[in-house]
Amino acid sequence: MEQLPEGFLLIVKKACPTCELIEPIIHEMSAAGLQMTIYSQDDPAFPAEFEAVLYDESLEISYDLDIETVPTLIKVLEGSEVARLVGWHREEWQAMTGISVLGSGLPEYRPGCGALNVDPGMQRELAARFGISGLAARRVEVAEISDEMETCFEKGWTDGLPVVPPTPERVLAMLKGTNRSPDEVVAVVAPNKVPCSVEKVAINAVLAGCKPEYLPVVLAAVEAACLDEFCMQGLLATTYFSAPVVIVNGPIRQAIRMNSGINALGQGNRANATIGRALQLVIRNVGGGEPGGVDRSTLGSPGKYTFCFAEDEEGSPWESFAEQNGYAPESSTVTLFPGHGIHEIFDQLSRTPESLARTIASCLLSVAHPKICMASDAVLVISPEHAAVFREAGWTKQKLLAELHNLLQRPGSELVRGVDGIAEGLPEAFADNPAIPKFKENGLMIIHAGGKAGKFSAIISGWIASGSMGSQIVTREINQ
Amino acid sequence: MDPTAELAPVERERLPRPDSLVGKTVGLLDISKARGEVFLARLGELMTADGISVRHYKKPTFARVAPLELLQQMSVEVDLVVEALAD
Questions:
Q1: For residue range A229-247, what is the model confidence (pLDDT) as tens digits?
Q2: Is the CB of residue A166 less than 8 Å away from at least one CB of chain B?
Q3: Which residues pair with A291 in a beta bridge?
Q4: Considering only alpha carbons, which residue of chain B is nearest residue A284?
Q5: Strand order in the sheet with B80-84
Q6: Contacts of residue A157 in chain B, CB cutoff 8 Å?
Q7: What is the value of pTM for the model shown?
Q8: Is the dihedral of CA A261, A264, A268, A272 positive or negative?
Q9: Which of A132, A140, A171, A284 to mutate to test the interface with B (most CBs of B within 10 A)?
Q10: What is the pLDDT of residues A79-123, one digit of tens each?
């Protein structure tokens, strides 16, 4: 209700003993000349002998007023709510009504009962019926004889896998996952440069199979993907393999039960699977980025369905990736890396950090091409058994990164075009450079994740166009 | 609710009509309605006379949708299809 009736609003139901208890004082209030509007949830004849009772049979008024308990007494001035009481508390009612003797024969305090509009299942039903007006997205009618799952395919809304049909009920439930307004613009989404609202993100989160509590992560991921430095347009249009890889840090990992352990980069966890997928569906559906359209990837990669995981911070010998970048441990962040893969690092024999670092370095040389340097970035996912080798030797993350930097320097004479009978390589001008690093400064990132058993780590290779000329890794804080 | 940017209409758009049939292969689908084959045979003669290549197909019954194999076969063999719908 935009304009509330002046005076007092009282919401009651006959089945509530407290409402029955206060029936006499309703007459006291009326007799005192107070302007009153009474809404009964379950019986138009309650309170008895009161002509002005309005029967809220549909519960629309109760829904609009966000009633949780009956009785609820609301004071209205100039069309707006200025005060609200729930249950019966004599002193509070006396103060609000200004009647000092109100209910003097009644007990001092009685709690109210649950309102009908918040009965189990009812909120969702009422939200779909009365809450829909706040939503702006176009309604798409599905003929009764049509299968709604098939309709989603026919409309082109899916990544090739089935999606959850985005009914108004589901979208409204999804929007409960954030405090942000449905019409707030989250980002301008490539490639069509479309302003994308919280509501559109929520619809795509429904499609992807997200739970409402994942929505803040999806919203932050969409914001991050659309930052200029991430260059989503180019990342989508490239013939290369890469797509956004979503890495989550902070307490929200545990709150929404993300997987950072066994099979962390694989299937089976709803949050991991659907958050990454929701981001891809926003790019497809809102941004208009479809394979064969603006998405020109030669081969693509499986991560373009979804690629999202959490860091195992608790089991890590090091500060988390987010902490390393200045975020407080209690904040939750989402980091996007333009990547694909994964490429394995197999080493079951190294027991010293020096040996293991050499293994990792030799595997990292193959990112993009062994003779290409300073192009792709990479994320190194160190598993617990490998991390233990560094932990026991007291190596910090910075020491490992410095050692890898040293190991990954090679003379230009080994890297230029034509060397080893391979046409690909660096331009001839680099031939005299004695030490060319494989990665740019800060081009190598370390994340700790994986199951406790297995002396295997992983490389997530980055887009060949990295850095300021292409796509840079971006981090956003997750807000509710 | 529509998850897209709502830049396209909800209704599925018809494919663009060809400007000309020259150089195209036309499928003539007899859906087993009475005298449909007569109409299509004459259409085929006229098209052939105009130098348009023609292929004939037949649905087993008008009462059911075409078998998947037939749909797939037509989709790779011809550019467009004419079917004789009514009696």
A1: 999 999 999 999 999 999 9
A2: yes
A3: A295
A4: B4
A5: B53-58, B25-30, B80-84
A6: 3-4
A7: 0.79
A8: positive
A9: A140
A10: 899 999 999 999 999 999 999 999 988 999 999 999 999 998 888
